[in-house]
Design a protein that fits this description.
By secondary structure, this protein is an alpha+beta fold. The protein has 16 helices and eleven strands. β9 and β10 form a beta hairpin. The radius of gyration is 23 Å and the shape is globular.
């Protein structure tokens, strides 16, 4: 069972003991990401995450930072998203103090050396190039650009080459001082820990965290009156598509219905789209449907890579399945399978201390409340076939339909005319 403690400065600490493991994970999450940025600072959340691995007063360079946990076989990394940024270390429980020292040190004491900033600009630009050279990744960036346009939710998390090159130490410091503060931060320790001992140690290692009030992100503007298509012409052997609809956010009462719907459509190997598009028609090697549920927006999207000559057939096949599920109630056996799939996957995933830390930490950061797996399972079990039909009738409408694709084409209208129910 977890325990949550909020300190006087607003810092939230969650401890999740696991008797069955010797692993322990320390995860620090801060409520800031690409949605909090301005045009001129686009990518700064991601840039700052990179800089936390470039040296502190105690560990002067990247080698010293990496060797600290490499010497004990630790697993460590960081990540940046639209709504939050995270840093974690996973070690044997005997090295719990080492993990706490490592995470707190990079989080609180990074030097942001000017020479390292200059070098890292080249690294991040190559990261951007890597994603743009990979159509399977690039189409996901296009998808959000199509949905949200020229606002933070529609920008690449890594920023643009121009915004990266204009990043300065002063900008990084200002962002750090405004956002990396106690009230904006959740620390979660999970695994083979003792609850009170872990709590006391976290307080000790993070005692110097700043107390400034953070700034809030702007709201996401959504406007769509008809089906939309965004085409990126590129010489490729496959056409990569993201095809889906605007849907519900994290706080919508039907969010769990939406998640089950995604699994039924394309979330498992026996899902409708996997069987129809890959197994029966042989149109794609990879095809999946994902549901994104953020605090402010949400969508359901099917992604696939298909032979260029089969792209229209693939789009129409996906659309046919969208139509079918919005017009015919799903069988109870199919609903039960999807529910058991979600619950089973969650149970297996949460056996690891890092997944458990993320499970509770992200809930607290984004929702301000914590549900146990059992409480979530109960909500999933309540979903009915009528609920699925209600959601599909609502979201599968022309004015919510969107298609992003990358392939050797230049005629957007060719695909735009396919988007109709």
């Amino acid at each position: 069972m977890f325990k949550k403690t909020t300190l006087k400065n607003g810092l939230r600490i969650i401890t999740v003991p696991q008797k069955s493991t010797r692993a322990v994970t320390v995860l620090v999450l801060v409520a800031t990401g690409s949605k909090y940025e301005r045009k001129e600072t686009s990518g700064i959340s991601h840039f700052l995450e990179h800089m936390f691995f470039k040296g502190t007063k105690k560990k002067p360079d990247t080698t010293a930072i990496a060797e600290t946990l490499d010497k004990v076989g630790g697993i460590y990394n960081a990540f940046t998203g639209e709504d939050y940024t995270g840093y974690f270390a996973k070690v044997d429980v005997s090295h719990f103090d080492l993990a706490l020292d490592w995470v707190s040190d990079i989080f609180l004491n990074s030097k942001l050396n000017q020479k390292e900033i200059a070098k890292e600009k080249g690294v991040i630009i190559e990261e951007i190039n890597m994603y743009y050279d990979n159509p399977m990744s690039y189409v996901q960036i296009l998808w959000k650009e199509l949905l949200y346009g020229d606002q933070p939710a529609g920008w690449n998390i890594a920023g643009t080459k121009e915004s990266v090159m204009s990043t300065s130490r002063r900008k990084l410091l200002d962002y750090l001082q405004n956002q990396y503060v106690a009230a904006n931060t959740v620390i979660c320790a999970s695994g083979g820990i003792r609850e009170q001992q872990a709590m006391n140690k976290i307080k000790k290692y993070f005692s110097s965290i700043k107390k400034n009030p953070p700034f809030k992100k702007p709201g996401v503007l959504e406007k769509q009156t008809g089906p939309e298509c965004l085409l990126k012409g590129k010489k490729t052997d496959q056409t990569h598509i993201c095809f889906g609809v605007r849907a519900y956010n994290l706080f919508h009462p039907l969010r769990y219905v939406q998640e089950i719907l995604g699994v039924i459509l394309g979330g498992m190997m026996s899902s409708r789209l996997f069987i129809e598009v890959r197994e029966r028609l042989g149109l794609a090697y990879y095809i999946s449907t994902d549901v994104s549920i953020d605090p402010d927006v949400g969508f359901l999207v099917t992604q696939a890579g298909v032979d260029n000559k089969n792209v229209e057939k693939a789009i129409l096949t996906i659309l046919k399945e969208y139509k079918k599920i919005s017009r015919e109630k799903i069988p109870s056996s199919e609903l039960k399978k999807a529910k058991n799939y979600i619950k089973g996957k969650m149970t297996l995933n949460l056996e690891s201390s890092d997944a458990l830390a993320s499970f509770y930490g992200v809930q607290e950061l984004l929702e301000g409340k914590l549900l146990t797996p059992e409480e979530i399972y109960a909500k999933i079990d309540k979903v009915s076939s009528n609920d699925i039909l209600r959601v599909t009738k609502d979201i599968f409408q022309p004015q919510k339909l969107n298609l992003a694709l990358i392939g050797p084409f230049n005629n957007k209208e060719r695909f735009q005319r396919l988007l109709k129910f």
